[in-house]
Design a protein that fits this description.
This protein has 266 residues and is an alpha+beta fold. The protein folds into 2 domains: 17-124, Lipocalin (Beta Barrel); 127-248, Nuclear Transport Factor 2, Chain: A. It has helices at 3-18, 22-29, 127-146, 150-154, 174-187, 262-265; strands at residues 31-34, 39-42, 47-51, 60-66, 69-74, 83-92, 96-105, 120-124, 157-164, 188-200, 206-217, 222-233, 239-248. The longest helix has 20 residues, at 127-146. The protein starts with a helix and ends with a helix.
């Protein structure tokens, strides 16, 4: 064997070991990436979403990594077959993703496409960007509640949202949530809340918010307390509330003692 062959044989295992495997690449890709026109969110469940949507067509689909290549699929409006693409991963780190398309098939293949394509470069949307988006959404929610707009207030909840109000059972459906908020809006003259802490999932599809609220009741009494919300980044790129919990900081009202002779009546 030549000297070059010996060196290649010696280095090959080290090179293979240094190259990230599919699982490592998959973990790195999960998150939200900013391109020239869109943000693409690669979710841990193997789906991807564009924000804003691309002309209502290839706005979402599925993805996986095989043999170091990114494979994406989607279905265009009014089509019966999926389109797919295979991208060579040039570079993938915590901050940057470079790739080029080497194969594209299906109805979504552009006419006159020349492959391999140019190298596309996108950068990861940081948690700070996502944190600002969900903070802004929570602040807007507080404003519409203060304006006593019932429709806009309940529109912030996801379809499968659950509310855990104090001293009563969980509310698990749209009608229940609407009725709960109608009673709330009728019971106070002013309400506001403010986020104090945000934790965003690395995938960018969920965030946990905690904060404090203040309200003035119709009888003039005041209440203040805390809340915890779980927000979901939905397929259309909008943040929706999936779980809502809150409770007052005021001391619980004491339970009145039983009247004389209550024990004998049992």
């Amino acid at each position: 064997m030549s000297r070059v062959g010996l060196v290649a044989a010696f280095l090959a295992p080290a090179i293979a070991q240094a190259r990230p495997d599919d699982a490592a690449l998959t973990q790195l890709l999960v998150g939200t990436w900013q391109g020239p026109r869109h943000e693409t969110q690669y979710r841990a469940d193997g789906t991807w979403v564009l924000d804003p949507p691309d002309d209502g067509e290839n706005t979402r689909g599925k993805w996986r990594i095989e043999h170091g290549r990114l494979i994406e699929s989607w279905r265009l409006t009014d089509e019966t077959e999926d389109s797919s693409s295979v991208e060579e991963i040039i570079e993938l780190t915590e901050k940057i993703f470079k790739s080029r398309i080497i194969l594209q098939e299906g109805p979504g293949k552009p006419e006159g496409q020349v492959l391999p394509s140019e190298i596309f470069t996108v950068t990861r949307v940081t948690e700070k960007n996502l944190e600002k988006a969900v903070r802004d959404a929570d602040a807007e929610w507080s404003k519409v509640a203060a304006a006593k707009d019932l429709d806009k207030t309940v529109a912030f909840y996801a379809d499968d949202a659950v509310i855990f109000p104090p001293n009563q059972p969980a509310v698990t459906n749209k009608d229940g949530i609407r009725n709960l908020w109608k009673r709330f809006l009728d019971s106070f003259t002013d309400i506001s809340w403010k986020t104090t802490r945000v934790e965003v999932a690395k995938s960018g599809d969920m965030a946990i918010l905690t904060g404090t609220y203040e309200m003035t009741m119709t009888d003039g009494s005041k209440d203040n307390g805390k809340y915890c919300e779980v927000w979901q980044n939905k397929a259309d790129g909008k943040w929706k509330v999936g779980i809502d919990m809150f409770s007052s900081d005021l001391p619980a009202q004491p339970v009145s003692p039983p009247g004389p002779g209550a024990a004998e009546k049992k």
